[in-house]
Write a structure and sequence with these properties.
Layout: E1 16-22, E2 27-33, E3 43-53, E4 56-66, E5 72-78, E6 81-86, E7 89-99, H1 105-112, E8 132-133, E9 138-149, E10 158-163, E11 169-174, E12 178-183, E13 189-194, E14 200-205, E15 210-215, E16 219-224, E17 227-233, H2 234-237, E18 257-261, E19 267-271, E20 277-281, H3 286-292
Antiparallel strand pairs: 1-2, 2-3, 3-4, 4-8, 5-6, 6-7, 7-9, 10-11, 11-12, 12-13, 14-15, 15-16, 16-17, 18-19, 19-20
């Protein structure tokens, strides 16, 4: 017998590039799209309500936000503010949820039974703005705050974005190898420096003000503002595998677990210090979401 297929949590109408979970609000935020190519695939950010129904995790679409011609490739979440990487730019979005008064328990229970997807023909006609709230009794709004260009290479692309511990600063990295730090929510630039020769793969801001970056140049670096504190180079500090091109790929905020995703669609989770396998899933991200919640 083959491996049992994991139940599908949600199927987006566009390629998914970024996911964020807000445990306090029970929200899953999914973003992606087809980009500027005129393929008919839309670009958007979907806000999903996560709930436990009869012992199973369910996701229902609350609101869809149209990002017009730009797909969101990376996301960071700070309260109700989203930082979305779109091409060479970072867009700050603020979302708000309001439960309309007068919605009784029977109505709420009925809405939960709709399942993870809208029934055919059940969704109202799409508004001209491209924004649409999909659940009755819920007022959901998304506001564009500020936008700034964050990468300036020949083929500019923001690859990563993150907030600091108190959400007052935002750091971005991209294909030009530069780290840029911005005030929130004005996006006034406060720091810029060259961190890597080539693309920045990931970065993380620590509570002590230090910044960790990893790049295509096989280096992992720790910075205090723009001053290099320490650095690892895979060819010098990493294990030796003949004829195998390895590089540092990601930064971890907690260091407890390591998550891996493959081009074949499988997901695995390991204990960071021992690389002991905790979970192996052969299809989609729903098991990981269940673990995070």
């Amino acid at each position: 017998m083959g491996r049992r297929r994991t139940p599908e949590l949600y199927r987006a109408p566009f390629p998914l590039y970024a996911l964020r979970v807000d445990p306090s609000a029970g929200l899953l935020i999914a973003a992606g799209g087809g980009g500027a190519a005129k393929t008919g695939i839309k670009n958007g950010v979907h806000f999903l309500q996560l709930e436990q129904i009869n012992g199973r995790l369910s996701a229902s679409l609350l609101h869809s936000h149209d990002t017009e011609t730009r797909a969101t490739m990376n996301l960071a979440l700070a309260g109700n503010i989203l930082a979305a990487g779109q091409d060479a730019h970072c867009q700050l979005l603020r979302f708000q949820i309001h439960q309309q008064k007068g919605k009784n328990k029977a109505e709420k229970a009925g809405s939960k039974e709709q399942g993870p997807r809208q029934r055919k023909g059940a969704a109202p006609a799409e508004k001209k703005s491209g924004a649409e709230t999909h659940q009755e009794g819920v007022e959901f709004s998304v506001e564009n705050l500020h936008e700034v260009q964050t990468d300036f290479s020949r083929d500019p692309l923001q690859k990563v974005v993150c907030f600091n511990h108190d959400n007052t600063l935002l750091a971005t990295g991209g294909t030009d190898g530069c780290v840029r730090v911005w005030k929130v929510p004005t996006l006034e630039k406060v720091l810029e420096f060259k961190a890597h020769e080539g693309e920045i793969e990931d970065l993380a801001l620590g509570p002590d003000g230090k910044l960790v970056t990893v790049g295509w140049d096989l280096k992992a670096s720790v910075w205090q503002k723009d001053q290099l504190v320490t650095q690892l180079h895979w060819q010098e500090n990493g294990p030796t595998f003949s004829n195998t091109p390895y590089r540092y790929q990601a930064c971890s905020e907690s260091g407890t677990f390591l998550g891996l995703g493959t081009v074949t669609g499988s997901v695995a989770i390991y204990i960071a210090f021992s690389l002991q396998e905790v979970l192996l899933c052969g299809c989609c991200c729903c098991c990981v979401l269940g673990l995070l919640l």
